[in-house]
């Protein structure tokens, strides 16, 4: 079909699959960032480190405790979410009345400390995490083979993104969370414990990052710098979608993954910068982002 462009059908669909998988990771990670910024007004630079921690918790659970992949999908986000709660209680809570820059600098410093600790302990060569046996092999789609694990990553990411959006946008708890960002004193007057809600929100954002890390562990090698490698792209996704926009992060993450995959087919040299070019254009045309609210 595409031979007249000098591109085989297998190559095109193969890159679209890679783009969809990358987009699933971008959506999951940017969702966690959007939750934290949208509800806490914190630019969480530790998000990449929390993604890396999720992958390492899964790897350590398997190698030291015999905890398999399926349990790690639950336990790793819980563990990293608890670490996030501890960080919020001891450090971040002190910065809410200060300029956003202080939160950014603190989380950036935390990211360097966490990454440095894992680098010191495990180096940067990477650790292997095997695909679970149930997800080995591939589906024959006729025009290409779809690895079962890649298909699972896309499905799991979309399910988690959809559930998070439903909780925040369509439930009473989500209404409290959104109200707490705009008028916390009024919400507290109605008996809602706003500080606890804020703490749990940061823990949720960290847990989403860790969930993405567990999904990534069998695809990419588990190493100390895996979070910093993807974080800049994820920040670009959040900016394009609109800072704090949940649906913007999901839609933009998947769309940009696909665009990146197509760029690798038609113009490989531009695939590493296409997302940042799009970000620059969006910031010029619509500074609040595609789904952000203009002030």
Structural domains: how many: 2
Query: Could you give the count of β-strands?
Result: 2
Largest sheet: 2 strands, antiparallel
- Overall outline: globular
As an assembly, this protein is single chain
Helix content: over 70%
Strand order of the largest sheet: 1-2
Estimate what percentage of residues fall within beta strands: under 5%
The secondary-structure class comes to mainly alpha
Count of helices? Answer: 11
The end-to-end distance, rounded to whole angstroms, is 47 Å
- Contiguous uncertain segments of 5+ residues: none
What's the gyration radius in Å?
Answer: 19 Å
Report mean pLDDT, rounded to a whole number. Answer: 87
Encode the helix/strand succession as letters. Answer: HHHHEEHHHHHHH
């Amino acid at each position: 079909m595409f031979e007249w462009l000098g591109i085989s059908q297998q190559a095109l669909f193969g890159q679209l699959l890679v783009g969809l998988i990358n987009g699933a990771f971008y959506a999951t990670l940017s969702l966690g960032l959007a939750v934290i910024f949208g509800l806490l007004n914190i630019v969480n630079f530790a998000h990449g480190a929390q993604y890396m921690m999720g992958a390492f918790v899964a790897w350590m659970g398997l190698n030291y405790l015999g905890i398999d992949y399926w349990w790690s999908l639950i336990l790793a986000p819980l563990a990293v979410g608890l670490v996030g709660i501890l960080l919020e209680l001891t450090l971040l809570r002190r910065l809410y009345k200060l300029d956003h820059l202080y939160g950014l600098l603190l989380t950036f410093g935390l990211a360097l400390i966490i990454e440095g600790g894992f680098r010191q302990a495990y180096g940067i060569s990477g650790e292997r995490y095997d695909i679970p046996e149930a997800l080995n092999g591939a589906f024959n789609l006729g025009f290409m083979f779809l690895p079962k694990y890649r298909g699972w990553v896309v499905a799991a990411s979309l399910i988690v993104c959809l559930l998070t959006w439903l909780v925040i946008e369509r439930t009473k708890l989500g209404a409290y969370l959104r109200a707490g960002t705009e008028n916390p004193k009024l919400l507290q007057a109605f008996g809602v414990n706003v500080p606890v809600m804020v703490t749990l929100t940061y823990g949720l954002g960290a847990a989403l990052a860790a969930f993405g890390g567990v999904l990534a562990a069998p695809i990419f090698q588990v190493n100390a710098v895996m979070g910093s490698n993807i974080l800049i792209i994820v920040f670009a996704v959040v900016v394009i979608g609109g800072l704090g926009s949940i649906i913007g992060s999901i839609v933009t993450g998947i769309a940009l993954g696909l665009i990146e995959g197509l760029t690798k087919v038609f113009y490989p040299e531009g695939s590493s910068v296409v997302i940042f070019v799009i970000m620059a254009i969006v910031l010029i045309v619509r500074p609040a982002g595609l789904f952000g609210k203009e002030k």
